[in-house]
Amino acid sequence: MIDYRLPVSRLTQAMQASGIREIMNRAGALERAGKKVIHMEIGRPDYDSPACAKDAVKRALDEGKVHYTDTAGTPELRRAIADVMKRDHEMEIDPDGEVVVTVGALEALLAAFFAFLEPGDEVLVPTPFFPAYADQITLAGGVLREVPCRFENEFRLSAADLAAAVTPKTRMLLLNTPNNPSGAVMRREELADIAALAQKHDFLVISDECYEKFSYEGRHVSIASLPGMRERTIIISSASKTFSMTGWRVGWLIVPAPVKPFVAKCHQNFTSCASSFAQAGVAAALYDAGEDVKRMIDGYKERRDALIARLRGIRGFEVNMPGGAFYAFPRVAELTSRFGMSTTDFATWLLEEAGVAAVPGEAFHAPGNFLRMAYCRPLEEIHEAMDRIEAAVKKK
Predict the structure, then answer these.
(1) In the chain, ranges of CATH 3.40.640.10 domains
(2) In this predicted model, what pLDDT tens digit does every residue of 34-55 receive, in sequence order?
(3) Cβ atoms within 10 Å, residue 331
(4) How far apart are CA 182 and CA 374, in angstroms?
């Protein structure tokens, strides 16, 4: 028997279960056994990708654009990214010197961590957070340091809590607004306080802005647009959520010019380049899919309002109105206490008893008893899910 000596040290923590896949796998098993499941565990837009993007891909294929591109991405896509940043945030971006196109936002994040982190460097991450952050920071040799955000503050990061978490080993803050899983959206004045701390303590900010268009009560503010922050901020974004193009696997980083060679070197050795024809489709979407995005955002806002109203009508659910993304993050502490369950057990019970899949908050390092419920489902399914949950809780 070969001793593979696995997992190696950097994989030890990363091999822990995420919680999301476990619920998905259990839901799949129930469906195969004949049970109808309403999937509110999956953070995936249910709209089609824009027609302009698909048409651009067809043209690219017909024109033979099927080979490697520049490692940093096609000039056309990098220019489109820069143009959109100018249009939406009044930021002047050099498409050649400050943009790196990647295979989705996850690869963009990983390239940033590998480029910046020395072993033992600390990354401040507000909780709750997307589980992949922890895995990637560990794989890159960093140390994740949690900064708690609270239900009572709608899970927005407090500058005071952030200041208390800073240590001599702090290398960067990972900021995600709008947030997955809480839907929290940071306000401009709050970002300004955080920017002041970043400058005072000389740490970098990785700003995960993949949900920026999903800001329902106002325009998204990038911390990079605030005074003194452009040179210390790495913006992460992608086409996946904005254009419902999750399977296209195209993301990007916007970085200060001195940083680009190092991030690009990591990206080059991870994946070489993003798909050539997919990049053509994303460039078209950035310029021409505005109406598609508006239609999708309007649809999700309607679903959000319906879901929150229904959750607030079920005894035992407490929920904030999420300002962005497409997740509700209700607190269910009363129910878990009354039923004598952990949140994981409660999520499993909801799945098996009501046929509704939701992710326990532990998966996101949430401080308390919470569930993440994705409302990227048809409105009628959302209402059916709430009917089922209400009936199950009353019957218990």
Answers:
(1) 51-289
(2) 999 999 998 899 999 999 999 9
(3) 20
(4) 10
Tell me the β-bridge partners of 126: 147
Cβ proximity of 175 and 186 under 8 Å: yes
In the block, which residue shows the tokens 């952050």?
A: 133
Pick the CATH number of 9-48+291-395 from 3.30.1490.20, 3.40.640.10, 3.90.1150.10, 3.40.910.10: 3.90.1150.10
Q: What is the pLDDT of residues 59-116, one digit of tens each?
A: 999 999 999 999 999 999 999 999 999 999 999 999 999 999 999 999 999 999 999 9
> Which residue in the block uniquely carries the two structure tokens 């659910």?
317
Third-level CATH fold of 51-289: Aspartate Aminotransferase; domain 2 (3.40.640)
User: What are the start-end ranges of the E strands in 132-169?
Assistant: 143-148
Residues 143 and 324: their CA atoms lie apart, in Å, by 28
Residues 6+ apart with CB under 8 A from 29: none
- Sequence letter at residue 381: E
Bond prior to 75 in cis (omega within 30° of 0): no
Going from the C-alpha of 390 to that of each of 330, 350, 353, the distances in angstroms are 14, 10, 11
Cα-only R_g, the chain: 21
Taking a C-beta distance cutoff of 8 angstroms, is the pair 151, 322 a contact? no
Output the pTM of the full model. 0.95
CB atoms within 10 A of CB 12: 11
Report the distance separating Cα 70 and Cα 264, nearest Å: 10
Other C-beta atoms lying within 10 Å of the C-beta of residue 98: 24
CATH 3.90.1150.10 region(s) of the chain?
A: 9-48+291-395
C-alpha span between 147 and 33 (Å, rounded): 41
Cβ neighbours of residue 209 under 8 Å, at least 6 residues apart? 177, 220, 222, 235, 236, 237
Whole-angstrom distance, CA of residue 283 vs CA of residue 189: 32
